[in-house]
């Protein structure tokens, strides 16, 4: 979705600036492939050879490679080496962010902490370096997309199994990244926009699910609810340092893990992220349009941006939509590999009511009362909270809400019966708070434009 949203908004922005636009898109299912969006549309594969052929034919002023996800980013080196002008963020910034050693060196120079980590070139080296990092650790091949082949591992035996069953079948043999998994951390996503001189911190989002669940599959809350102010100040400061240190001219997404007041950067991506549409709607600023105008030379000040740390007076929650029903027999569980195909958005002055609305939008109607069934061990604290809230606990199949923190077949039955279910401890806690708030007052409805009027001081 972010590719479609960002590219269409970029075309509109560039037309406003008087440019003719050419789009290359190999996906016929998206709005950006509509014949009348750009001045010219090429339905071609996004390979270096094909794009260079089009550049030779069209002779454009330049190419924007940071609004279409990871695929065009991978073309940036070849385009620059072929003499094609990259508009906006240069290849040097893309390389600094994606090359593990270069990014680590940059973070050290900028004084930004990272989790303990190592890079292994072979499985044998991975086994040796894992002892230095310590368990639990997050293992992944370098340059993964959508969290594929990423795992949280708790022992040397699990690492050996991962190397045999997940890494060995990979056709290419990329480096193996080993990072210390920070237990109990709150994960944050930050979208920022830089013109090379000033940096707009567009949105800081708190993940509901723990670190280890792919950011694309976690519910997110803007602004954060459970992050200390001191940590948030560090997050904004680190994001500005990274944007300017990398040399970004356009959008930047940074992911952090927060443990108390300590903040660790996980990764930075100098491109439009999947959260850009959500953040744009939450704060009322068309980030992709602004990024496109920066790419052709505008500054944030010239674009009328004065407030560099916008925080709306309400909460916006993004929840994901995962089509579990379409995959027969699959038990719904969340992990490092992304599975969602869509998302919903809820807005309210109360963060938990915003969460309730987002759940409704995603097709999950949380019951205000009734019977709850729990699956898994060590859930006595959650059971006590739900019992205290007036829910009846049951072990049978007659329930109104299923909370299963283990991959049990009953979760699959809940999917097929259309019953609400929760698979994470954090989701269970947030859902209960949302239910308690929804009991107190009815849900209100206001258009997005109405919320933006509230944000700007109107009624």
Report on the structure:
The protein is built from 15 helices and 17 strands. The protein is α+β, with helices and mostly antiparallel strands and 459 residues long. Helix 13 links the parallel strand 16 and strand 17 (421-422). The protein is globular and about 70 Å long. The two termini are 31 Å apart.
Strand content: 15-25%
Could you give the order of strands across the largest sheet? 11-10-7-8-9-12-13
* DSSP summary, beta strand count: 17
Query: Could you tell me how far the N terminus lies from the C terminus, measured between alpha carbons in angstroms?
Result: 31 Å
CATH class of the domain at 324-440: Alpha Beta
**Could you say what the CATH architecture of the domain at 324-440 is?**
3-Layer(aba) Sandwich
Structural class estimated from helices and strands: alpha+beta
**CATH topology of the domain at 324-440, what is it called?**
Rossmann fold
Number of helical stretches of at least 4 residues: 15
Helix content: 25-40%
Give the overall silhouette.
globular
Cα Rg: 23 Å
Largest sheet, strands/sense/barrel: 7 strands, antiparallel
**Roughly what is the average pLDDT, rounded to an integer?**
91
The low-confidence parts are none
